């Protein structure tokens, strides 16, 4: 069929293949042979070489969609035209934008088109387009994981890119698609290290985190126990002789372990790999970055990779971040708390930086307290305890409780101050605050377990507190102490049991359990005084409501009161109850967090988050370092003498001629890249070429001078970056445009591109597209709807079949595993005068899919609910839609004079005025207008002295006028003039709520 025949059919002309008349919902797209033929014709037009035919096809498709016809099968053909034409555009921004739009379409049918576009963009002349291609790779991978092998080829190609603009993006794609393929990093490792200082900030974070994990697999641990190595190398015979005598009867596994240890002792002293040193050297300047994430990334790299003697350089940078926002402080302090457990010394000089301010949020206070506790030692403990004394006076109860626990930890870790801390905590027992006393009791209990015989006076003092302390945990702790050390207080313990027996029935369960334990221990050690009391307590517990308490009472009665039926355990009752208990160990909650990579979400949560990659262990033997050597083509090699002569000329020449350098690159960065990577490899490992040059062509003779020069260059670059950061927009302006002079792009071709840019949007367009500011309501929950969920919103757009109805947009989502069929409404129940215009039946809603329909309701200017049944082919659900009063009106345009005139006619009982105080965030004009129009579908009156709004009710067209007059210090007056007083009264309440909440 020719295009002219198809065009005549669209216009209504006669033909053998006429347009069918659908007797059902047009959106469902009735399946007739003519549909297929017409759509095939359109596909042929879209695939033709003539722009005029493509333009005509696009017009017809837009017209079909506007009439509600289903054009989804044309989607790939339209996308192919839109994407391909724009991807070939002379303007690099258009090419990149086209690829970005194409990769954001989550439809599997266009995966081949996306793959072709990404491959083409990866070879583009513009670094910005190549960067966009790297961004598109993870999107395509998440859409179709089967494309992984082809995407890896693209990643490998982009990793070889020399521009800083691409580096961060392609490493991010690498991390998302194939993080296990470290072989792709080998040949690009030195280049990434050298480009790092010029990469944009978020790219630096990604690259540093990736290189941290890479280094843990390729280099040896720099903190190997050197003393063992020295001992093994100096006295081998004595060492081996002692081992052989002792391991005669050991199993084979133990022998292998010892053999490994002996082999380790034979090794030469540790020498850091040159590439390991390159990474540490090139990341160090980034500790001065303005971006907290970059500083944190470098800090974690040094913590996980650097020798202990060098890790201290990160302390000052991390302390600097504590002057930032509380969110940044929280993350930094979490990581510092972990570091201080193993590397306490590096933060000791900055002790005062962790002192707590009264303005700090509670979570920051607790973390600083954790750091101070970890830093406490015999030298600074007196200073830290003085700080803690001031913290206890705080009004923040959670912080005070954490401080008391910190004092307990200090007393546990530093024996010299244990008595001082214990006496200080005992003084807190007289505090007026019950929570302070309770926390002190719990900590004292743990400390007394270490030396109970020396502190019988403290136990006596705590026994007297049972009359005053009401916190269950504190009472239980006191009873446990008295029972455990009852021999140290033989006179007081029975009296405490007597008091507890009186109040047994009113105590909490945790206290009751400790009363039973106290009774049992006293029965075993002082049965003469406590026998009857114990039986009384056990009888009370026998009938308690809690089954744990009843079971504990039965168990203890059989254990401590011997009878004929008693088992063998009753003989060992004393050993069971009065056995020595080990003193509790008060440890930091950050003790074992360092197995998570610092700076990661998993470390922050102390749980493995989705997508987290484990930090590898150090290898036992160093992998082959030659995998990182980049081969240099023969034709580029020359003698060192020729290099010296041509060095200053050739490097800028090659930099310009390559066509690869972005706006952030320069000849200096190229020379820095080559000299750093090559110099380190040839000087430290001795693997340079025969002519005295390094692997990537730099000289070994002048290496030391070059390294110093490059360090200075790196510092200068960093300073310039901090002073004047390069904006992305500036980079785009300086990128090459790649315009080809004399290109044959016709005007019609540009028109096709312009029209078709938005065609994917048209193809997925629903009947009404509500604003994101509109509020959504739930009509049917997915659990109630057995997998079907329905939301609705008042779209505030005219309902075209009937202007007196409110348009309600409904979104149906099939969350179940089976398809839903025949979605429609039945049994509509309305108040007098109300009407409903049903939406066309939705014949099929596949599992996991979403559909949209529009319902029209005439509420008769009332907020009465419309009730009806939502039906599928198998179920019926009773649902209800009740409108807010602000959705019963439509906006109208009035001038200021017209507004004043109409307002003058709606005075008296038609006017309602209320005074209010505006919310702090709602005192500027934009916020007031936004909140009023969100509460009611009104339009702003232009040029008014006050904020004035106007509208009419949908059914009766009654005028609604709203005025918000503002005064000083947030005072305001809201006035509503409305012909219908009921609507006016309800509207005042809604707008008042919107302006004051």
From TrEMBL:
It comes from Takifugu rubripes. This is AP-3 complex subunit beta. Residues 665-691 have a biased composition (Low complexity). Subunit of non-clathrin- and clathrin-associated adaptor protein complex 3 (AP-3) that plays a role in protein sorting in the late-Golgi/trans-Golgi network (TGN) and/or endosomes. The AP complexes mediate both the recruitment of clathrin to membranes and the recognition of sorting signals within the cytosolic tails of transmembrane cargo molecules. AP-3 appears to be involved in the sorting of a subset of transmembrane proteins targeted to lysosomes and lysosome-related organelles. Residues 242-254, 692-711 have a biased composition (Acidic residues). Keywords: Cytoplasmic vesicle, Golgi apparatus, Membrane, Phosphoprotein, Protein transport, Transport. It comes from the Eukaryota. The keyword Protein transport applies. Residues 728-864 form the AP-3 complex subunit beta C-terminal domain.
